[in-house]
Every structure is written in structure tokens, then in C-alpha cells.
Write a structure and sequence with these properties.
The protein is an alpha+beta fold and 104 residues long. It has helices at residues 12-23, 34-40, 77-90; strands at residues 5-7, 29-31, 53-57, 63-68. It has three helices and four strands.
Amino acid sequence: MQVIGVAFNDNAPLLVPQFVQQFRANFPVGYSDRGRVHAYMQQSIMAPGYVPFLMFIDRNWNIRAQFTGEQDFFRNEEKNVRQMVETLLKEPGPKKRAGAARKK
């Protein structure tokens, strides 16, 4: 499992170091522009959404769930995050492609 943070607010490149220091983030934090984030989340940039945005991506790189700050998911976020992570960790990893070379 890997947790990452992506800032996409105005001046994100300047604000990320301060965020990491202030909240002592122990996971990678980067930035992107708002349009790319909304495109990846398959959301209209015009759709209202409240931070945080939380996305779960499975071992096959499929978006399995995503939530924005106003949703009920965040009313009991620790329980809900644990449940989602446990579900995803129980699933098998990606299948090897036929004919794929082995790393030595």
C-alpha cells in the first residue's frame, strides 16, 4: 500500500514544502494542476467538491472508490478507510502477462 498526497490549489508548488513541514507528512506529497487532477478523477472541473479528495486505486491501477470532503465517508473516516484498505489488500495482485520476461 502506498499513500501519496497531491496538492492542486493555486500556488501548490510553493505551498507543498510548508504543508509537509507543518503536518509532518510521512508520505510523498507533490502537486499537479487542477485540470489534470479533475481529469484523472473523471470529474468535471465545474463540479463542486470539497477537500480532501480521497481516492483508492487497486493493484491493477483501477480507481475503486473516491470521496470528497462533504461525503458521509468522512463522518467515520478511520473506520471507513481501514475497511477499504483491508478489502483491497485481500485481493490478489495483478496477473502476469503471458510471455512477460522475468527480472533477474
